[in-house]
Structures are given as structure tokens and as C-alpha cells.
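Following up on my earlier message about magnesium ion. Here are the inputs again, as you asked, copied directly from the submission form:
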Amino acid sequence: MQNPPSDQIPSATAPDAREFAAGGELGLLRDIVRLLPSGLTVLDEEGRFLLINDAAASQLGMATGDSVSKHLDARRAKGIELLRAGRPLVAEMTATGGNGEQVLLTSHRPVRIAGRSLLLSNSTDISEQKAVEDHLFRSAYFDELTGLPMRRVIEHRVQSLIQRYEPGYAFAVAFLDIDNFKHINDYYGHSVGDALLTEVAKRVGLNLRETDMLSRMSGDEFLLLLNPIDSEEEVAEYIEATLQRLKAPFFIDGSEIFASTSIGVSLFPDHGRSYDALLQNADIAMYRVKNDGKGAAVFFDTSMEREALLRMKVEQSLRHAILEKRFCCAFQAKVDIRTKEVKGVEALVRLRDDEGVIQAPGTFINLAAELGLIDELTHLVLAEIVRSIDLINDTFGPEATISINVAAKQADNPAFMRSFAEALQATGFPRRFMIEVTEDAFVTKRRFQDEVVPIFRKMGIAISIDDFGIGYSSLSALADITADEIKIDRSFITDIHLRPRSQGILRAIESLAEALGMSVIAEGVETFEELAYLQGATRIRYAQGFYFARPVFLEELNIVAPVASESRVNEASRPVQENRQAYSSRPNRRYRR
Ligand code: C2E
Ligand code: MG
Ligand code: MG
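Thanks, got it. Here's what our run produced:
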């Protein structure tokens, strides 16, 4: 917009206005100016206000008829300065006036009228617009749930601290992650999960200094900046106190919730000189805590870096293996311990790594789940079973059920489970299959139990609860689960004949399963004594374990000479080294030992 010539009154250029002024209606004009909704003041060079309309008086906090107010004084001082400099200014100010606190946008313009230097100042109330802007600002930078600054805020803060670095100066960043938050969310519901996040944020933020900052990074992850710090010990003490506070129960919605948190800490400048390096190293340290049993805090050290690099290597090789379909299955028999007949067979996935070494699932299954590769892997396992069905039938009998393991994370994903059910249907023999899921899948009962189980039921596919006894569910939770089989975890079976407590648990599981019409299978039977106990003291019908047969590669069974590829089995998979001897007496499918 162009400034009008300084010696003209703009409105006087309109023809009607000219008539109006000529008509001597000056009084009317004055009243209009007085009642204008925006605040108008006119100041002369001596600091006298020639005009203050009603809106301006109210904005500047002047009571009626009053000419004193601190805002007015401030405007006078500023006005004189602007008049002297002959320069216009648009400025924002907050004023407490007749309408409470207002944000005013004021435009000051020096003009010359009738040879006099005057300053015209026009203020508009932009409070509402500011409130909207503030809200937008807050939602861009602050987390709505916890009110904490978001990641970009803490990132900016850390970066500016690094830029101002002076020798001797140090700060710490701590990465916090609530343990098993997903379980809590699933079990208690999202509103309780949200309330827990808010409470955790409060507890962590309790004793922070002005210069510290707590930020919510995403989901259940928080980043804490402790700035400045004197020593590692001081940080360790502070973090330990925080951990303890977080261990105390949370009371939410009438529930007492226990939640622990894992914390990884990195220090500037020792552990990194950029935000990314510090964050990554705190994350690496946190990862270590998660692996070591959670609920603790660990400081980063360089040995972890090597570990992380190694993990990255495994990650890369896993991605390659999936791409190149370098997976195969070992099959382990499930045996009727009374008749020694094979009742079924479990497919156990194996990975052939970059060097051709066979790896057991313990080295890659969790990672595959973490990286979102597990669904593809499960489909590969199924494809392998379909490809090997003739061999399976030859080895274990055409009636043997075929068990496939599904990770709890997959079981909780109805979309995947539906696609998997379709794939099972497409094999043409869906009724042969049994799905093994761990108890965790049943804890998040709602989706798996309500949406997934019925699909499999309808198709005649059985469900087995794998590793029963070590997960989250209690015996009473069994009553709500509709499964066909319970696999008692190996930890109960090992030396069962010597362990009265485990015997008691076994009896309880057994009678409950009987009442609920589920069959029971004991996992990991390795010795004759264990088997003898199961046969003599329980009514358990089925077992699986090295005593009967190790997992085997079916192709290799067809090779008559003893397979000389043992050296290809990596040390890491030694406990599951495949044993072919148990099958040397084929086609008899009984296990006599
Ligand atoms: P799981 O389903 O409980 O399988 C039984 C594991 O115990 C197998 O280990 C098996 O080799 C081992 N085992 C069997 N009998 C004995 C015994 O008498 N003594 C001892 N010490 N071990 C025995 P593996 O093959 O290493 O598999 C480990 C776990 O990996 C499985 O536990 C299962 O949870 C998971 N897994 C295997 N294949 C798959 C798969 O295709 N998909 C998914 N999601 N998980 C799989
Ligand atoms: Mg299993
Ligand atoms: Mg198991």
C-alpha cells in the first residue's frame, strides 16, 4: 500500500467527504473518529496528544477523563522518538486496558499536516488472531497429551547448546522408554495408557531445572536433557532417583498399574558431538537395558557401538536372506507318549546366512519381528511346507498335523492373520494345520480371541498355546481362551521327576486343560526319566523333545549316507543341531529308543 502525501487527510479526497466537510459537519466527523473501533492517537513533537479516541483510551488503560497511564507514557516516549527519526513503525504490544489483556498491533506514521509534524498511531486488537496463532504454535511444537515439547524443540535446544560449546562444559541426554507399554495399553485400554504417559511425564519432569528439558519423542519414548552437568556420578544419581520414582505404582481409573522404564544415557561431549550421535548412542544404551531385562538405566560406552554395528550387520543380512528366500524348515515330531506314534510335526524355521551357515531362529526371529519382516517369513515357511508336503507325509505320515509358529505380534494383527488364513486355505489341506502362538497373544485377547480365532475355527485349523507357563497369563486366564492344545514350556519339563513344585503346576495345568477340553503336550523332553515321570504320574498324552527326535531337514533324510554337513551348523544353533538318526528306521514312524 502506498503512503498518501503527508499533508493530506486521506478521507478528504473522496468527493462525498469533501461535501461533508464543506457542510461544516466537523462535529459529526469528530464523533465518528471518537467512536472508531480501532484505537487512534495523534501526537505532536512536544509530546502532547492532540487526539485519543475512545478505543485508544480503553486500549491504553485510561479511565474516562483520565490522562495518566503507563501505556500512554510509553507510547508518548516511543512516539517522540519516531517523530524525531521521521520513520514509520508497525509493532505488536500487550496492554492491559479496559477489556483486560489485549494484544495490539499498532502502526505509527509520522505525517505533516498544516506545517506540523504529527504522529498518527492506529491500534487494532489482534488478541483473537494471536490466540489462534499461539494454539497453532503449541500444536506444532508441544505434545497435546503431555504438554511436553516435541522432538524438534529439544533437537533445536541441544543443537544450540552444542554450538555454544566451551571447554569444560557438559550435558547429558537420557532416552526413556516405558517397558511393555503396548501390553498396558492393550490390557487396560488406550485412555489408561494415555493417562499413564501423562503421569510418567509428570514424574520424570518433577525436579527439573529451568535449563533442563523433557520432551516426548513419540509413543512411549521420552528424551530428557540435563544441562549443565558436573559429573557422570551426579547424572547417575539423578537418573536412579527418577527410575525409583517410576517404579512406584500408578493409580489410574481405579487400577494400580506397575510400569518400569528403561533408560539409556549419553553425555556431551564424551559420547558424541552432534545431536544425532548423542541420541543414537543414548538409544543404543537403552537397547542394551531392554535386552538385559529392562527397568534400569545404562550409560553408553563404546563397546555398545560395536554391538550395534554387529546388529546392523545381522539386520542387513536378514533383509538379504528374506529377499533371496534363504530360509528352510527343520521339522520336529510331536509324539504320543503312550503309543510312540507321531501325532504331528512342528515346522521350525532356519536361516542360511551369508556364509551358508544355518542359523536357529533365536538369532533372528525377534529382529525379524522388530523390522516388520516376520509376516513375509511366515509366508515363506508355509511355502516351504507346501513344497515339502510329500516328504512330510512320507516321513511323519499323511495324518500328522503340521504346526506353524506365529509371533504374538502377528497374532494381534487381524489383517495379517486373515491373509495367512487365506494362504492356509489355498494349500488345499487347511485342516492339517495347527497355529502355535505364545500366551502373550492371548493376553491381548480382544483382537486375537474375538477376530482371529473364529476365522481359524471355521476353517478347522487348530490353535496351540506355545511355551505355556512362562508368559503373562495366569491359570485362570486359560478359562477365557479357546485353544485346542497347550504346550507346556520346557522349563517345567526339565528334570520334572525331581521337582515337586513343577509337578504341582503340571497337575494344575493338566486338570484345567482337561476340564476345558484342550490337549496337553510337554515340550523339551530330553531324558528317559522325564518321560517316565510324564507316563507314570500324569495323564499327559503328548510330548516333543530331543529324547524322541531333534528337528530334521527332510531333504537330508533322503541321503542314505550319514550327512557330513554338521560343520555347517553354527555354534549359535548348537542346541537345535539337527539329528537325523532318529529317522534312520524309516518308514516306521514310531519312536522306540
Ligand atoms: P518353540 O516353538 O517353542 O519351538 C521349540 C524349540 O525348542 C525349538 O527351538 C526346538 O528345536 C527346541 N527343542 C525341541 N525339543 C527340545 C529339547 O528336548 N531340548 C531343547 N533344549 N530344545 C528343544 P528352535 O527351533 O531354535 O526355535 C526356537 C523358537 O523360535 C521356537 O520355539 C519358536 O518360538 C520360534 N520359531 C521357530 N520357527 C518359527 C517360525 O517359523 N515363526 C516364528 N514366528 N517363530 C518361530
Ligand atoms: Mg512352537
Ligand atoms: Mg515352545
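One observation from looking it over: Residues 302-323 form the longest helix (22 residues). Hope that helps, and feel free to reply on this thread.
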